[in-house]
Amino acid sequence: MAHRSLLQVLFVTFLSASAYLPEIGGLAGDDLVEVNRSQREFDYFALSLQWPGTYCRGTRHCCSKNACCRGSNAPTQFTIHGLWPDYNDGSWPSCCYRSDFKEEEIATLNDGLEKYWPSLSCGSPSTCHGGKGSFWGHEWGNHLQSLLL
């Protein structure tokens, strides 16, 4: 059952990403084609899972966004750390273009993301263009937006 739910979250993630295809961060039409020329097609997806039990053992600081701090509701199964496009040479496409992550646009996915793709820390990870943001914003900017090219 958990395996099926995880696949559903991944599927919905891909569907959500595809919603950005018509217009991405102000890029549309010819502009998007121009950005696409600078990025080669990736070779495969790397699915990175994490074991919260081990990771959470090192948690020293708690905050509302840290799934390790949920007490009896803390994750007890493998969770997603990331789904990344990769190249066979060990490199990966990253920060393909500037597109701000808008968490309110995925609000309907929040329960599934919190369960299967939670943040296990309190920090604000860096984004592609020097800012700080949410864990999901980091994954979007550094990895997932490249899927749209």
UniProtKB/TrEMBL annotation:
GO terms for biological process: negative regulation of autophagy; rRNA catabolic process. Residues 1-19 form the signal peptide. InterPro entries: RNase_T2-like, RNase_T2-like_sf, RNase_T2_His_AS_1. The keyword Nuclease applies. GO terms for molecular function: ribonuclease T2 activity; RNA binding. It comes from the Eukaryota. One of its GO terms (cellular component) is endoplasmic reticulum. Keywords: Hydrolase, Lyase, Nuclease, Signal. Belongs to the RNase T2 family. PANTHER family: RIBONUCLEASE T2 (PTHR11240). This is Uncharacterized protein. It comes from Arabis alpina. The lineage of its organism: Eukaryota, Viridiplantae, Streptophyta, Embryophyta, Tracheophyta.
